[in-house]
Amino acid sequence: MLSGSDVHWWGAMTSDFENMTDSGFVISDHKLNQTFNNQSFVVRLLDNVTWDSIGVVSVWDLPTASDFGHVLLSNATEQDSSSSKSESPPSESKDAATPGKSNNSEPFKAPTMFDNCKKLSDKYRLRWTLNVDEGYVDIGLEATTGLLNYMAFGWAKPNTTSNLMLNADVVITGIREDGFPFADDFYITKTSVCSVRDGFAAGVCPDTVYEGSDAVGSSVNNTKLVYGHRIDGVSFVRYRRPLNDSDNKFDFPVNATENLTVIWALGVIKPPDVINPYYLPENHGGVESENYGHFSLSLSYHVDECLGPLDADNKYDQGVIIADANAPLVVTAGPSVHYPNPPNPAKVLYINKKEAPVLRVERGVPVNVNLDDQQVKFFWTIVGDSISIAARGEKKSGYLAIGFGSEMTNSYAYVGWFDRNGTGHVNTYWIDGESASSIHPTVENMTYVRCKSEEGIITLEFTRPLKPSCSHRDRPECKNMIDPTTPLKVIWAMGAKWTDGQLTERNMHSVTSQRPVRVMLTRGSAEAEQDLRPVLGVHGFMMFLAWGILLPGGILSARYLKHIKGDGWFKIHMYLQCSGLAIVFLGLLFAVAELNGFSFSSSHVKFGFTAIVLACAQPVNAWLRPPKPAQGELMSSKRLIWEYSHSIVGQSAVVIGVVALFTGMKHLGERNGAENVDGLNWALGLWVFLGVVTVVYLEYRERGRRRARNLSRGNWVLGNVEEDDSTDLIDSRGGFRDKDDEEGRNGGRSEIQLEPLK
Q1: Could you tell me which Gene3D superfamilies the record lists for this protein (predicted)?
Q2: CA–CA separation, 145 vs 551, rounded Å?
């Protein structure tokens, strides 16, 4: 018995929970605050306690009101009514509390009670009770092992001295994921997992598999399951085996008085699937005398080597409910069936149909999303310059892997798996191909690494820096950086078996994601990756047409085409600007509709939105244009400010729009991995360069034309009809001129200067 904080001998009239807690009392001053291993002692009642007031003797922990175990004294009042005090219970009660004793009325024995117990290892025990008259032996296997692990015990082939596992007759037992026990007859023809090829079975297989279709209605599986449970991380299974079996093919006869060689093992079991209906044991591995072994056993010898209870490190692997965000918990009250702490209360709480489970809440992980096909859940939290990541499969598997990338090739992978000893691992890899030889181990700076399995469901957890600190930048893991502002592409895979040694095709996944999921780390959301390159290509072309051709063309027409007769330059300017702005809006709506909105976290969106705002301000600016000055008057200050602002805002919009084109190319490459982004960037850069050269050339010609015009004005003579119709923004008088100033050439009043001819 493990020690408690304040444990006493306790008495009550009945064993129901209310009576034990409300009416129970201390019956002895003998304290039990230590660990007891197979010890015997005399317990004396208190002076004020008599046996007629006690119907139940219990070992009771006061602070937690927990019953460590109790004995019913059903006849205590009748047989000791004349005694006021006693040093021990009456003989019948003592007999009822002592397993294995026999009297006139056969005492009840719990299925966990046996006549013999042998310690196989620190975490595995063998118990048995022999019944020669009935021709059977009851065997109990008890171990601190994982939920989906097996406990194996059996007899080696008679007269075998080496390779004792081969041709052995064993029973494989364990606890299923639903909490129910199993025990099946197995025969070993090879030390490998059972397989059936061309109708022939080989390996560690159930007896019925060797018989094939002939096993229907046969009696080759003569092992009878009696009882089983799993409590506090300890699995226990009791089964019955006949001493002389009718199955002489796969079962050996057992002579109860003869020393026979027996074998045992602990290991991981493979759950049934659509092809295999059995729980099949995998290679136990590990160290001899810890995970497997053999010895000589005579069932008739009395053995008592088991002191105290088995104590598992992980006591809460059964009946665990994990509370996820937005997942409702169904809580009901029902009868107490398997509640492990007697006396059982009449009713207990059932959560999601599990009796009195452990409720586990993921704390510190506020965000989780489902990856592709809803078969893997991805958790994360960002603290400072590090990120904590967890992934949990939604179905049973041998290993679970997640990767960062658009596909398996050129991705960084994290694999959670269990070795033969049931120890969990998380390995990291760089994958540059589709074969097993293309999976290269890496060394990442991970902390708080954990891999666990609950009923075959694997969960892996780790914490890593957002930007790895590497002294050797040529290592692949040094490039495995996570930018919280950029969507993280996550893929997943599951398989049957993994290893930290040489990987083969047998380690390849059996199921995988069909497409990556883009996880927005800062927003706490995710979306399935879609091939949007055609859509974004149309969006990019429309924006190039607007910001690279139409809108710059409208600005150039207003700057360099005013020498055209009439208002042709003005019409060209208006048509190009309106067309460009319309295409900008179409391109924007096209992208927003396909991407279900947009976020301002990327530089492309920031530059693009700024350019659109400035472009939309231009029509409003034009509508608010101050009136032009009268003929002969100087430009007003309002008109002057408007001319400058209209020109500067328009030019700024185009410059920022061109920058948005470049950032859009970069964003396209990061999001969709477009292979021709570099080529498009060079083409766009060449186009911008040609545009700048063109503007420089036009500006040079414009300034030359202005110099010539000013010179002709200074030497103007009568009859000179080569007056330049073009008007610059600023004339020689220091004011702005409007295109309407040309009225002087159309009949309006004008002034000229006459000079004498020489």
Answers
A1: 1.20.120.1770
A2: 73
